[in-house]
Amino acid sequence: MNKKWGLLISSVALSAMLMTACGGDKEAASTAPAATTGTQVNIEASNWKFNQETYEVKAGEEFTINFKSTEGFHGIGIQGLDVDLQKDGSKTMKIDTAGEYTIFCNVICGPDHAKMVAKLVVK
Ligand SMILES: [Cu+2]
């Protein structure tokens, strides 16, 4: 996973920066309308942080991540999970085992991009 992101990030770094600079708006392929029931995990990204340091969900229960860039162009990936959202988007999923997962920004968004990390705690 790390290796994959490293490759991806270095290969698209330039184009991502250009796209961000022009205010390009791209819909992620995995974007789906937000579900209205179940646990909602609202993650907002701004320059250069997430609105919470940790987000909690329950193991074995479905939840929906609602991701939004409120300032700038950001994205989220979650280490070890199939989550890849850019700008705005939602993803419904379920994690069966308790643990902690690192949420990171997957768009090269500016000088403090590397600081954009948070934690998903599955209890
Ligand atoms: Cu970023």
UniProtKB/TrEMBL annotation:
It comes from the Bacteria. This is Quinol oxidase. Residues 29-117 form the EfeO-type cupredoxin-like domain. Pfam families: Cupredoxin_1 (PF13473). Transmembrane segments: none annotated. It comes from Brevibacillus formosus. Keywords: Signal. Residues 1-21 form the signal peptide. The keyword Signal applies.
